[in-house]
Amino acid sequence: MNKHVDVLIVGAGASGIGVGIVLKQMGCGNFCVIDKGDIGETFRRWPKEMRFITPSFPSQGFGQTDLNAVAPKTSPAYTLDEEHPTGEEYAEYLEVLADHYQLPLRTKVEVKEIRKHNNQLFEVVTSKGKLCSKFIVWAAGEYQYPDFDVFPGAEHCIHSSQIHSWEEMKADDYLVIGGYESGIDALYQLNRLNKKTRLLAKTATWEIDSSDPSIVISPYTYGRMREALADDRIEMYENLTVSSVRKEGNSYYVETREGEQFTTCTPPVLATGYKGSTSMISQLFEFGEHGKPLVNEQDESTYCQGLFLCGPELRHGSHVFCYIYKFRQRYAVLAEAIGSRLNLNMDILELYQKENFYLDDLSGCGESCEC
């Protein structure tokens, strides 16, 4: 592995592979993608029953790109023959792309520390030695970094991201905390296994009148929730904010700010989100009121020049880039910023613009459906 590169991409998931492809197409000959696991490691860690909620369909021939593609002219639906791929299947799609575009990639390389020197070079301390880079693209995602700081006693819970398969859940009764996608998925999977399940939700996401999937659950999730509710094994409690969890003997007591108490004999399933991988390098970012890193119009850290962010932690004001079809549109914008400083060939950007993979004007984001 070259110890001195122009661009180091940290993370070989959807964003790391996607940005790597753009840089390769722009003629960048000295960059590297690294990951502490394998290609698509985050997706490989999904529960084996978990599937994409956004549907895949090979519609490129009529100007519509697969929602889950990370590069133009590619489609997970075509590659995998799946509309809602599992995490393992999607990792296979990413592997195909890495091989097809011959990306310079090294796995099992974990970042320990990043320092920025006065000569403007980044020194990256990894499990396999030190690297130096002019630019860093942070694409390590958030799924592998669950948030246990949500309330006292959260350490007594099992985070949904720690579950390898729902079939491992052998008890008959579970309590799930969190009413967004992960919480409803837990509800559905446990019900499918004939488990009695209670769900505590701070916000009834299934009742919000909005077309923004960053706020409400997806149609795919709605359908599975309705299917599960029909079995009459589920209790859903709305507008409850969990304030603490305590363990006494073999029982877990869940308290809410509203004065409610729930008791369960199994660790509550925590589905309240992630602190994200940027928590590892928080000294290189400023953070906004939304709790996420602040970036400029090119997704570069407002605090540390040369450090770029892509993936589900990306925020621009009220715009939440939490889905692949959202944050993939920023890959080329980010790559253009780096490419202009490295004097790379920008011709490929025309294809990205044509294929709706280039979003530099955010004024039209967040518009609602009329019906």
UniProtKB/TrEMBL annotation:
Source organism of this protein record: Oceanobacillus profundus
Keyword terms: Monooxygenase, Oxidoreductase
The keyword Transmembrane helix belongs to this UniProt entry's keyword annotation: no
Cited InterPro entries: Auxin_biosynth/cation_transpt, FAD/NAD-bd_sf
Name listed for the protein in its UniProt record: Monooxygenase
Molecular function GO labels: flavin adenine dinucleotide binding; monooxygenase activity
